[in-house]
Design brief:
Elements: E1 6-10, H1 17-28, E2 31-34, H2 35-49, H3 56-65, E3 68-71, E4 78-81, E5 84-85, H4 93-103, H5 106-119, E6 125-129, H6 132-136, E7 142-147, H7 150-163, H8 171-187, E8 200-203, H9 209-224
Parallel strand pairs: 1-6, 1-7, 2-6, 7-8
Antiparallel strand pairs: 3-4, 4-5
Helix pairs in contact: 1-9, 2-4, 2-5, 4-8, 7-8
Bound molecules: cytidine-5'-diphosphate (2 copies).
């Protein structure tokens, strides 16, 4: 193969993808590609422009013209769309509530997947999202499917919100939002959230970020040790 290895990490919201992927990228010296941030940035742009999110031709036009830049060295990852820094804006509850509807549109996926594949052309990348192992990089050397119960994922989110001083949302509400997004992401017709047949599933309930990171690094070395 004339590229460096690729590591694909998929799973539902709150499974630990972003946190673990960042650590894995640092430890293995790989480029970190957060594809969820790209879908969030496009969603922010659509909301900002005031067009109807269901107006697919109008969304398509915006997406085709937009330029996304990632700054993976920053924590949290920096992201710019059309030159504007939207790192904080893409995490808003409004973007979170609308991102699955935007991400289900074929033209949006086509456009972003092309950019993701270009990013991974030379390899040396760890990418995380929903369709990395199934669709974006189907020939990745290692595919991980990270999961955790809805309860655990909701508790993690709540803790995260509390730490940011945004504790005004109940656990029940978070659970409901997460379950709804899981459903939308798993049932859409194009590239739904699904474990690739050759992916290794890691159930992370009760596991620390460090334990999950260690496990993935071990698997990565196993899978790539025969490559030169
Ligand atoms: O961080 P969190 O798990 O909340 O979500 P994210 O990874 O930032 O992704 C936000 C949304 O983008 C997901 O709920 C999906 O609707 C969409 N997404 C996608 O469709 N395909 C990807 N490869 C990544 C994200
Ligand atoms: O990217 P994704 O939505 O899959 O999850 P994340 O944003 O990386 O993680 C969600 C929250 O869970 C973060 O606050 C992490 O610090 C936390 N987490 C955890 O407590 N234990 C893990 N094993 C993984 C993540």
């Amino acid at each position: 193969r004339n590229r460096q290895p690729i590591l694909a990490i998929d799973g539902p919201a709150g499974a630990g993808k972003s946190t673990v992927t960042r650590q894995v990228a640092e430890r293995l010296n790989l480029l970190f590609l957060d594809t969820g941030a790209m879908y969030r940035a496009v969603t922010w742009l659509v909301l900002e422009s005031g067009i109807d999110i269901e107006d697919e031709p109008a969304v398509a036009e915006l997406v085709h013209q937009c330029q996304i830049e990632l700054v993976p060295q920053k924590d949290p990852l920096g992201i710019l769309i059309n030159g504007r820094d939207v790192t904080a804006e893409i995490r808003s509850s409004q973007v979170t509530a609308n991102v699955s509807a935007i991400a289900a549109q074929p033209v949006v996926r086509q456009c972003l997947v092309e950019q993701q594949q270009a990013y991974g052309r030379t390899g040396g990348v760890v990418a995380e999202g929903r369709d990395i192992g199934t669709y974006v990089f189907p020939d990745a050397e290692l595919k991980i499917f990270l999961t955790a119960s809805v309860k655990e994922r909701s508790q993690r989110r709540q803790l995260e919100l509390q730490q940011k001083g945004l504790a005004d949302i109940s656990l029940e509400q978070i659970e409901q939002e997460i379950a709804e997004r899981d459903h939308k992401d798993s049932t859409r017709s194009i590239a739904p959230l699904r474990k690739a047949p050759d992916a290794i599933e890691i159930q992370t309930d009760g596991l620390t970020i460090e334990q999950v990171t260690e496990q993935i690094i071990r698997l990565y070395h196993q899978k790539t040790s025969h490559l030169t």
